[in-house]
Structures are given as structure tokens and as C-alpha cells.
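User: Good morning. I'm curious how iron/sulfur cluster would be positioned relative to this chain. Could you predict the structure with it bound?
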Amino acid sequence: MSNRILMQGNDAIARGLVEAGCAVAASYPGTPASEILSSIDRWRKKCGATMHVEWAVNEKVALEIAYTAAITGLRAAVSMKQVGLNVASDPLLSAAYLGVTGGFLVVSADDPGPHSSQTEQDSRLLAMMAKVPVLDPASPAQAMALAGTGFELSEAFGVPVMLRPTTRVCHASQDVDAPPFLPPVREARFVKDPARWAATPVHRRLLHDRLAEKIAAIASWPATAPIRVNPEVSPTKAVVASGVAFAHARELFGELGISGRIALFQVIQPYPLHAAFIDHLLETYAEILVLEESAPVIEMQVADRRRVHGRMTGAVPGTGELLPEIIERLLSRFAGLPVPGGALPAQGGGRRPTLCPGCAHRSSFYAIRMAAPAGIYPSDIGCYTLGINLDAVDTVLCMGAAVSQAAGFDYAYRLSGKQVDIIATIGDSTFYHAGIPPLIDAVVQGARFVLVILDNGTTAMTGNQPTAGTGIGAGGETTAAVDMEGLVRACGVRFCRTANPDRLPEFIALLKEALVHARERGVAVVVARQPCAMVALADGGKKPGSIVITGECTGCRHCVDQFECPALVFDEAANRVRIDEMICTGCGVCVHVCPEGAIGPESAGEDS
Ligand code: SF4
Ligand code: SF4
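Assistant: Good morning! Here's the predicted structure, ligand included:
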């Protein structure tokens, strides 16, 4: 019986994984992949499957956990965003050599654009480097189906397989036909074989040969062969597309009326591209246009620059998302039709993002500016990156780099006999993810800086997933919780203090004390602990009281420009600030920000 359900792409991937008997799933949150694991947990509960589902401390750990299940004969999956794959690349490359005995799917969600990432890198390139086959879905329904196909491919050849959705697949919604669940019936069985599972370099060479043979065989596996969409035409031109670019191209073929003139192929498995398909393309068509995001993975495998047009040849823009308007122009030009004019929709831009009203990160950043006005402020990946608006974030490189960059600045300035105040910021989840090794390194090297761990008790930016410090598992169950301060001290840090940043005057004083310690005795850590304002709101937290602007307001704009709480609104006509009661959380931190003392609790005077 048909069971059609409206699903978001990430939900569909999760359903496909559970449906196909995935027994172990691990992830670290990152947009656009974050919802996959929470959906897996929901589907496994719905179907009563016995699974291990976890938010791992980072993507490398997540991949290693899932991979290990797949060498006991189980089906296992790991999900992450594309930059998370960089973190997990070390075990991925090795896992490709060693292979699996069960099914192993690496879901790496790419972000062409990019909409919410540091880079718009193409996970398929990393898969090519690792010699891992990749499946490239064009829709939520296809992503769900390819989750099962991926497990079959993985088991047929004993290799990890990558499923590579992009943001538009992950976040699109589609009416999906959902088959019944097949409960996993396998039991873990690890067959010892040190020559394989703990292979030395001599054996690795042989394993590499075997992997190359597998990849050659996968390039003719029928289940993932390219699909010709309009088989009745016999043209001289072909469009080869994958992922969302294919979905746009298929619609535009109908709208432009070119289905009878140009062949359209969907590539499901961009790497390894089917060998017979490459031969067919080069033997049949005089001109071939390749549409893919974001790197020329298909194009470089076809590689005949006289006839193949794509990102490598400049026929297709070399960077950015392939929006329908862009593909329409590319197809029109390729088909010899008039090319639409006018401006293309801008990629990126939009409203300037800002920290939420009542967010304690704002207090931390304001305090950092007050404590070290001439300081350098390295920061990290998370919602607190928005501290850039408050001039309290100078650098953002990658997960955990705030700590190593803080040390790097100190060493660089020290060479010329200078000392500069350095206050780095990192979120609690990011600290557990990648902040601990650089902190150990900083202690060992005698670096002089203050690290503020912004501990809001959640992974806020990606949807409030638990951290290693919250004591909550992926399914809401109670787990052990890491003692953050104990961990910091165990790294060798001698100054480790915890405070609520919303108590602004005390917090500024603590930062100044930490700076003195850092200058004289090395790295100091301040844990800025206050729950995420949005979580507190969702939990039904009561507003502590109303805050008002009194008649003392001079309209100096200090609170608006330097503190930037969205609930503080400057009224140009009245030349003064008012409070937006709809969004004000009543945290009262702004009371300490106004130099005129014009902000106070309701009892203080004039209501705004
Ligand atoms: S409330 Fe205070 S800081 Fe804000 S504009 Fe008025 S006087 Fe300036
Ligand atoms: S009390 Fe002040 S800082 Fe807190 S949310 Fe309201 S306006 Fe913003």
C-alpha cells in the first residue's frame, strides 16, 4: 500500500537510512545536514528499530564510530556538512583502503552558494581523492532511494559510499512514497584480520591496488548508471547534469521546448563516472554541456575540451550556485535560442544577521571590548561569529582555530618584543569539537592569552543539539556529561574561572583579572556560562521584568551601535531609543550599557 508523506530532504535521507536497516548512525551538527540525525532518531522510534544513534563530539569521531560498526557486518551511516568532511577526511581516506564488511554510507551535505558555510567546496572532489564512490541526488525522494542504493553498493564492493545532497535537496520538501521499514536483523560479527584492519604500509599498497580495481568495477555497476531522460531523440548535442542542476535542467528542457533536439542525461554516480557512458558521450555527441555543483567532477572525467563545455572551460560560471536563471541562460545559449537578458538574482546578501535579543554572547563581546579595547579577538565557528558586528571578532578560520590563532598572534608579536592583549572566543560545542588540542598546545608553549568559552549549554546555530557537556543524548536520554572546568584544568590551565556574562560589571572585572594572569603567567580561561536565550524562551522561561528607557536618553546611540540588541530600536523622529517589548527578554544587560543611566527596570521611570 502506498504511504505518501511530505518530507524535507534531510528527513527523507533519514527515512531511507532507517528503512534500509541502518543500525548505527552518528553525526556532528552542521547546516545543511543537521536535521538528518534527529530525524533518524524520530524514525527509529517510530518503527521500533534497535539502533545506536549519537551526536559525536566531532565529525572524525562520528565517522570512526559508524565505520567500525560497518566492519562488524552492520549497516551504518555518518552525516555531516561538507566542511565537517575535512575533519573526518583522515579516517575516510584510510577506510576506503580497508573497506567494510557491512554497508557504510557517508552523507556529506554540500552548500553551493554558500548559504551557511565557510566554503562552497565539493565533497565529490574529496571522495575522488579518497577513491570513494559518490551518489548525487536531485530531490528528497531520490535522496531517500539512494540511501538504500548506497548501502547495496557499499556491500556489493566492500567500500564506503558517499551520498552527497546539497542545500536545495536537504531543505526542499517533497511528497515522498515511503515503503515500510525493514528491521535490521544482523548481529555484529568482527572477523579478526590484522593484515587488513591494522594494515602496515606494505599491505596498504596492496589494498590500494584492490581499491583501484573496485572503483573500475563500480564504474560499470548497472544500478547507478546515468539515466537518459529523453530516449527518443537522436541529436548531436547532449546535456549531462547531476544533483539539483539536473532537476532545474529537466524543468527547463520542457519550458524551452528543447527535449526533441538535445539529449538530457542525469548522472547519479558522478564518481566513478560509468566508463561506457563516457565512451557513449564521446562517440555520439558533437557538443556536450555539463551542469554540476560545485566543482567540475563529471567534466574532468569526460575531459575532451574540444567538445565538453562546463566549469573548467568557462562555459559555466566557475563558482556559486547554479540557480535556475543561470541554467536557463546556459541551456538557451547551448540550444541556439535567444538568451534571456536582465540582471541575475544576487547570490548571498540579504538582512544583516545579528545575535538574538537577550543573547549572553552579546554581553561577553561587550565585556571583551571594555576589558581589552586595543586587543586582538580571534573567534570561531558558531552563532557567536556574529560578534563580528560588535567589533569583537577579528578572525574566523575553522573549528577550534580561535585557540591556535590566539597562540599564533602571541608568538608572532613576541618575536618583536611586544605583548598585545588577546581574548579569544569559542563556543562550548566547538571547544569540545576541536578546541582541546590547541589549548593543550598553548599551555605547553607558554602562550599568553585569555580564552573565553561561551557556554550556552547547546549547539545553538544548528538547531540546539546537545553538547558533550549537557548530559543529554541524541534521543533525549540522559548521558554522562563532561566537566568543562575540570577538562580545562586537566589541560594544564592554572587560571580557570566561571561567571555569568550578563552580570556585566563583574564579568568585565573578571576579564581584566584574567588578562593580568595571561600577561604574567600564560593562558587563562574564563567560562562565560548562561543558557541560550532562545532555549530558555522555548522552555517557558518567564521574563524577569520589563525594562524601560527613561527621559534621560540623549539619543547618543551608544546602546544601539555598541551593544546592538535588536530589541533596542532607535526612533529617528524622537531622537531617542525605545524598547521593542515583543522581542525584549527583559535580561536587563542594557541597563549597564547606557552611559547616561537612561535604561532601567520599569520602576525606574518613563515607560518606553
Ligand atoms: S538609551 Fe542610553 S545609550 Fe541608548 S541612546 Fe539613549 S542615552 Fe544613548
Ligand atoms: S533587556 Fe535590554 S539587552 Fe535585554 S533583551 Fe531587552 S533590550 Fe535587549
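The chain is about 40% helix and 15% strand. The two ends are 60 Å apart (CA to CA).
Let me know if you'd like a different ligand tried.
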